[in-house]
Amino acid sequence: MENIIKEMENKMKKSLEIFQHELTTFRTGRANTAVLSVVQVECYGSKMPINQVASISVIEAKTIDIRPWDKNILPDIEKAILAANLGLGVVNTGDSLKIKFPDLTEETRKEMVKKVKKMGEEAKINIRNIRREANEKIKGLEKNKEISQDDLKHGEARIQKITDKYIAEIDNLVKLKEQDLMTI
User: Fold this and answer.
1) Residue 20 near residue 34 (C-beta atoms within 8 A)
2) How many angstroms separate the Cα of 8 from the Cα of each of 12, 13, 153, 162?
3) In this structure, what DSSP letter does residue 93 have?
4) What b/e readout covers 160-173, taking b as 16+ CB neighbours within 10 angstroms?
5) What is the pLDDT of residues 21-67, one digit of tens each?
6) Domain holding 75: CATH number?
7) Which end of the chain is more exposed for a tag (fewer CB within 10 A), N or C?
């Protein structure tokens, strides 16, 4: 039973990490290099993550500077950023790209909050599915007489407690991101 609970907690932790990463890709009104993690640049005959072809740094509150290691791929990087449809302003200076983060409108902020809440719900559903799997496994142990009914009840209670912890963590992340998005 301990292995089942440990495996369940590892899956929940991984699910939470994935959700946290998805939240970092959300564009707020401030410059954030994580927003560019979804950008794939077509160069040298293959697609590569932008951070493997250029250095990326935040130079102002609403501006990112992208300096390619090979200046010949600057147009490819620009094209990839525009194709990613992130709603960012791109200015080509000849040897680097300046990425401007426009102010978010109230309407855009509310739409983004809705998306964050939806992502949070999906993450919670994933956590509950992991809980259901673990509960089924320990019920199987009880059915095969490998554990007692008391052990089953104790195991289910521990599984629920761990599930509640991860659900609360997701709710907290959603709340923090909502505050971040609604802050002007």
Assistant:
1) no
2) 6, 9, 17, 9
3) -
4) eebbeebbebbeeb
5) 888 877 666 778 888 888 899 988 899 999 899 999 998 888 999 99
6) 3.30.1360.40
7) C
